[in-house]
Amino acid sequence: MTYTAAALPSRSSLRVWLAAASVLSLLTGGNAVAETLNFDNAPAGMPPDGWTLTMTGRGEPKWTVETEPSAPSKPNVLKQSGRATFPLAIKSDTAIRNGFVEVKFKAVSGSEDRAAGLIWRAKDANNYYVVRANALEDNVVLYKTIKGVRTSLEIVGRKAGYGVSTPVTSGQWHVLRCDFAASRFKVTYDGKSLFEVEDASIVDAGMIGLWTKADSVTLFDDLTYGEIK
């Protein structure tokens, strides 16, 4: 078969296509070594070892391991019951650039907010990506936090809007996940792919962790994460 010059892709187009194909491969597969934390070996009523328990902004977050009859993997969960601008629990010994993070959560209460979130590529308490589900707003939104300022990110293929509307029922366990590779992030909620975001504000490997907002009382279990190489 003979191809004309016009039919052949340009080198720049080919590079773009190969880069996109590489990211897609990372987001949908790759060799990932996963680890799951279920907090069952930690004493109830105490903060978990190996975590930086902090916040973005001001307040008094409170992260404790608690016994919970409804826990997906019994007996314990990690509970955030304090109040702060954005309470954070950062897994301080992680450093992942391309990979995934997933958690099961239950939004218990909160009159100002009722949220559960995952963070990745965290440099510190003021610089990270976060995707969160909100039971008061019934939506899932992905943000970047740079120097303590949170900004929502636009969804690929959509010109405007704020996250994706979806039921986030209080008092019920849900699953939130983000796969991230290069500048592409894919969000999955309760097993359903919701949206993708493109952003290159934080490109280096960073820590993963958990997030809430304001007066949210939230339970977390089965935090699973891994690096894709």
Polypeptide structure, described:
This protein is mostly beta strands. The chain has a single domain (9-228), classed as Exo-inulinase, domain 1 (Jelly Rolls). It is built from one helix and 16 strands. It has one helix at 11-28, and strands at residues 32-37, 51-60, 63-67, 76-80, 83-96, 99-109, 115-124, 127-134, 139-146, 149-152, 164-165, 173-181, 184-189, 192-198, 206-211, 217-228. The two termini are 37 Å apart.
Which regions are unreliable across 5 or more consecutive residues at pLDDT < 50?
A: 1-10, 12-25
- Based on the structure given, which CATH architecture is correct? Sandwich
Q: Summarize the amount of helix as a percent range.
A: under 10%
* Secondary structure tally, helices: 1
Q: How would you classify the quaternary structure?
A: single chain
Shape label: globular
Biggest beta sheet attributes: 8 strands, antiparallel
Averaged pLDDT: 90
Output the CATH class name: Mainly Beta
Distance between the first and last residues' Cα? 37 Å
Instruction: Provide the succession of SSEs.
Output: HEEEEEEEEEEEEEEEE
Protein name: 3-keto-disaccharide hydrolase domain-containing protein
Keywords: Signal
Signal peptide: 1-34
